[in-house]
Specification:
Length: 384
């Protein structure tokens, strides 16, 4: 049988078997509505609070600061639009970066149409943010900085602690889209002076359809959804109990295994990169050489197209990506690589391998076995 290799864990992860196990009772036996005061509701309510504790432990915040949502897109929208609405009397200026996920850039664009002023900060060729430029961009109208923890395409990790320190010094809220960091590297909500932090379940072995927004106590923010008083009036709607239990379990597992798992995956990723560098000429590694997620490898190959590369890898059973999940298939140049000044288009093919819990040395070896031949063939084939 053809070997199947999944190296697209930044797009989504498989649900961890223990997460699935923890969730199953909440579809039948423990079906109650956590807002109900009877036995069926109470049984679920206490487990919800346990899940809240587990999320809080992983990112170092108070459990009362955890608000469960349906995904990180909802968390980002709530944070950005909610702060803009609640702090209107203070100012209307938002600072973000050119390499954010569309779940941040699009709400910012929406607010720009609503009369806000948005400053988009550039990054350097390694995808790194200039902290002096960040501080210089702050005015007396600035209400929010939205900067990601780690980039989904390149893995570059921003200096989040320093960003938080600058934001706090100027009395500006700091929203951090930490979707790609939580569960992979330590994230310290309190210690890094973050006001609002977005988490997505399906990037850390919990299911799709659940996320969280951590909201620092005292943060002024209007909810996105209006309805019942769930989640301390921060997010209306009956809670996705099974999903939340799954997210809690995934956070518990991550808190226990993250450090050893990060090291294991880093070794696999480095073996992959060193192997490709040794076998394939005219290629380079994108992103920061040191401040980078341990599982992510973004590579550029001269004289091949991303789509042809991905198609041929897929034929060999290898699932990789040309960037974020939404952009592959759409033949779109990555806005992240463009911001970094990395060449793209027909002359350079960019692909991302993102490793995870299920990857083993054999997976890396399979990629090393087939990728050099694919690149060679594509380079030799006549261009139309
Ligand atoms: C950095 C980042 N932010 C936000 C999202 C959106 O997450 P969700 O699918 O939970 O809405 C993603 C998903 O790829 C992401 O990588």
């Amino acid at each position: 049988m053809r070997q199947q290799v999944y190296m697209d864990n930044n797009a989504t992860t498989a649900v961890h078997p223990e997460v699935l196990e923890a969730m199953l009772p909440f579809f039948r036996a423990l079906f109650g509505n956590p807002s109900s005061v009877h036995w069926a509701g109470r049984a679920v309510k206490s487990v919800l609070e346990e899940a809240r504790d587990r999320v809080a432990t992983l990112v170092n915040c108070d459990p009362a600061e955890v608000v469960f949502t349906s995904c990180a897109t909802e968390s980002n929208n709530t944070a950005i639009k909610g702060v803009a609405a609640a702090r209107r009397s203070r100012g209307n200026h938002i600072i973000t970066t050119t390499v954010e996920h569309p779940a941040v850039t699009t709400p910012c664009l929406y607010l720009e149409h609503q009369g806000c002023r948005v400053t988009c900060l550039d990054v350097d060729s390694q995808g790194m943010l200039d902290l002096d430029a960040l501080e210089a961009a702050i005015t007396d109208q600035t209400i929010l900085i939205s900067a990601m923890y780690a980039n989904n395409e390149t893995g570059t990790i921003f200096p989040v602690g320093e960003i938080g320190e600058i934001a706090a010094r100027h009395g500006v809220y700091f929203h951090c889209d930490a979707v790609q960091a939580v569960g992979k590297i330590p994230v310290d909500f309190k210690g890094e002076n973050i006001s609002l932090l977005s988490i997505s379940g399906h990037k850390l072995y919990a299911p799709k359809g659940v996320g969280a927004l951590i909201i620092r106590k005292g943060t002024k923010l209007y909810p996105l959804l209006h309805g019942g008083p769930q989640e301390r009036n921060r997010r209306s709607g009956t809670e996705n109990t099974a999903g939340i239990v799954g997210l809690g379990k995934a956070c518990e597992i991550a808190a226990q295994t993250m450090r050893t798992e990060a090291e294991r995956v880093r070794q696999l990723r480095d073996r992959l990169e060193e192997g490709i560098l040794a076998r394939v000429p005219d290629m380079r590694i994108n992103g920061h050489p040191v401040s980078r997620l341990p599982n992510t490898s973004n590579l550029s190959f001269l004289n091949v197209e991303s789509d042809s590369l991905l198609f041929n890898l897929d034929l060999a059973g290898i699932a990789a990506s040309s960037g974020s999940a939404c952009s592959s298939g759409a033949l779109k140049t990555s806005h992240v690589l463009k911001a970094m000044g990395v060449a793209a288009g027909t002359s350079v093919g960019n692909i991302r391998f993102s490793l995870g819990l299920d990857n083993r040395e054999e997976d890396v070896d399979h990629v090393l076995e087939v990728l050099p031949g694919i690149v060679r063939r594509l380079r030799e084939s006549p261009k139309v």
